Amino acid sequence: MGMLEAVLMTIATAATPLLIAAVGELVAERSGVLNLGVEGMMVMGAVTGFGVALTTGSPWLGILAAIAVGALFSLLFAFLTLTLVTNQVATGLALTLLGLGLSGMLGESFVGLPGVKLGNIDIPILSDIPLIGRLLFGQDPVFYISILLTAGVAWFLFRSRAGLTLRSVGDNHASAHALGINVILIRYLAVMFGGACAGLAGAYLSLVYTPQWVENMTAGRGWIALALVVFASWRPWRVLAGAYLFGAVTIGQLHAQALGIGVPSQLLSSLPYLATIVVLVLISRNRRMTMVNTPASLGRPFVPDR
Amino acid sequence: MRIELVKRPQQSAIFSALSPFLALALTLVAGAIMFSLLGKNPLDALYYYFVDPLREMWSLHELAIKAAPLILIAVGLSICFLSNNWNIGAEGQFIIGAITGSILPVMYPDFQSWIVLPLMLAMGIIGGAAYGFIPGILKTRFNTNEILTSLMLVYVAQLFLDWLVRGPWRNPQGMNFPETRTFHQYAVLPEIWPSLGRANWGFVFALVAAIIAWFMLSRMLKGFEVKVLGQSPRAGRFGGFSASRMVIFAFLVSGGLAGLAGISEVSGAIGQLRPSISPGYGFAAIIVAFLGRLNPLGIIAAGLVLALSYLGGEAAQISLGVSDKVARAFQGMLLFFVLGCDTLIHYRIRFVGAPTRTAEVSHGNA
Fold first, then answer.
1. Which CATH number does the domain housing residue B206 bear?
2. What is the number of domains present in chain B?
3. Does B143 sit within 8 Å of A287, measured CB to CB?
4. Looking at the domain assignment, is residue A85 inside a domain?
5. Which of A9, B132, B219, B329 has the fewest CB within 10 Å, making it most exposed?
6. Domain limits at B262?
7. B265 to chain A, minimum CA–CA distance in Å?
8. Interchain contact, A101 vs B152, CB within 8 Å
9. Is the residue at B19 inside a domain?
10. Nearest CB to B336; choose among A80, A105, A219
11. Which region, left, alpha or beta, applies to residue A281 given φ > 0 means left and ψ of -120 to 50 means alpha?
């Protein structure tokens, strides 16, 4: 395996968790719910995935458990913001703080233990194609799931009737309600889909990216996923482009650190965060474009009149 | 069973006052359940968390040390949140304030005079405010989401501090430990009552800041401006208030207070810079702000409660062998319950039995 091929493959591994979490959040935001708890749901997924895989020996069971825990954890957020109409920003922060705290507590006995790694798929012959062979046909299974997920969400949102309904709820919940659409139910489902994706993204971190448990191991990736949704103007394929851009920045700075160029490693480590800020500034600068793309009911509470 | 919300004609005064207490009670119940699951006697555990730290004078001083940064930061955040500016990067402003405030004792250790400490505090405030200014100006100039930018800057600040204490600011006599030289006597924030305990003047700063902010928010035009622009920017514009100037104001004030908290913590409680100088005060302060119902006087009480959860976490770790991580789970639960209970202020909650078919239909037509 050549150097370039190895770099491309690690970029894909760095991008995959961002992509999965961001696509899930995109669906929630398209239904009009801003869930700032992505970081918390992701870290819960990471600790669950690691713990279940460790005790059962099966990384797949770990992944399934992480998806379930992510969805259940997001249900907490959904109950507060949708049923009790609490402030979405504050409640999302609460979910993140709770997730970071709970996962630290649950995962304490896992610190330092060797994890279970989800192996790569190897499609014979095809994976031997130079340069792109391993990249396209020799990745871990979740990589393929993430691409299918993006395609599936893109199809669902823009080509299916249910997707149209979901977007209508996000753009104008009052009109959707008047048409007899169950706004709250759709939002519950969208939030739980986002939670399940965040759980999967977290499990990817602790089972594939770095198979171990470290407290706060998401290290802001949930927040970067949130920024990616804005960057992508709520479009799934643009989320994919953004996630790979960030994957490239992350891996680029890691390689620069390994090469020991004369720049402090901390400065290089802060590049993904600085890049997020720069990208947000560039994308938000055009107010009209932002207005057109943002789901119009995003973050606004809805209480059906009875 | 279904839950229905019925809007109250006006805010419930009873629940406005009761909701933080209700949330605390619910957190205690949830905590008791959590401890039972961990195989500990829940009453013992709650005792060590919430009563034991209050029994001794030195321990009360420790409480004040932990409460001071929480209150200082949360007071600033209340102004932000009331004006609808979501600064969640207080942790970063805290760190930068600690760094800029430490410039004199670390880089000019031979400059020893009574003026050093006031200068340090001023530089801490300026540093924190400047760091808070970044997400503020990005929001007003480029329409950038302040939640994400302020949070990203936390990671940048943590890495910057890490670089400083391992690199240029490392103590030359420190045997390669990642920490700066310890502050000289003129750079240390004095204790209020040294014979009784360690509490330093940071706690007094916190009380003064809370009282000034309370006066501003409840008695001055500026406070009215904060609330109007927070609840209805349109109404604020008609009133001649500038929304973008308010954004900058809120970020400068909250950043400055977080910076003051940072330099007070470093010069009072720690005495030098280290790679990690805060057990998440900037994030816990978000919980304090909401538990205090965004009222600076309420925030004083809420800050003491959260400080107790930090202290109790340490006490329970020693006495019961429960991990200190439990405290952070507690804090997260508390914010959930606070937000949930606040619903009772605006809505009456009705539990509706299994809906009959006719009820569903009439609901659909409503």
1. 1.10.3470
2. 1
3. yes
4. yes
5. B219
6. 61-320
7. 22
8. no
9. no
10. A80
11. alpha
* pLDDT digit string (tens) for chain B, length 366 residues: 677 888 888 888 888 888 889 999 999 999 899 888 888 888 888 888 888 888 888 889 999 999 999 999 999 999 999 999 999 999 999 999 999 999 999 999 999 999 999 999 999 999 999 999 999 999 999 999 999 999 999 999 999 999 999 999 999 888 888 999 999 999 999 998 888 888 899 999 999 999 999 999 999 999 999 999 998 888 998 988 999 999 999 999 999 999 999 999 999 999 999 999 999 999 999 999 999 999 999 999 999 999 999 998 888 888 887 777 888 888 889 999 999 998 888 888 888 775 554 444 444 443
Residue of B nearest to A177 (CA): B364
Asked whether residue B79 is assigned to any structural domain, the reply reads yes
Is position A269 within any domain? no
* A84 contacts on B by Cβ (under 8 Å): 3, 5, 339-340, 343, 347
| B336 at A interface, C-beta within 8 A | yes
Cβ of A97 within 8 Å of Cβ of B331? The answer is yes
- Look at residue A279 and tell me if it is in a domain: no
User: CA distances (Å), A50 to each of A71, A221, B99, B156, in order?
Assistant: 17, 17, 37, 28
Place of tokens 């249900």: A75
Domain assignment of residue A254, yes or no = no
In the Cβ-directed half-sphere of A188, how many Cα atoms lie within 13 Å?
Answer: 13
Structural domain span for residue A89:
3-222
Q: Residues B22, B23, B24, B28: is their CA dihedral positive or negative?
A: positive
DSSP 3-state of A302: coil
Contacts of B328 in chain A (CB under 8 A): 97, 100-101, 104-105
Report how many domains make up chain A: 1
Alpha carbons B116 and B338: distance in angstroms, whole number: 42
Shortest CA gap A159–chain B (Å): 28
Tell me which residue in A86, A98, A270 faces B333 most closely, judged by beta carbons. A98
The residue of chain B nearest to residue A180, with distances taken between CA atoms, is: B364
Residue B333 counted as domain residue: no
The answer to whether residue B13 sits within a structural domain is no
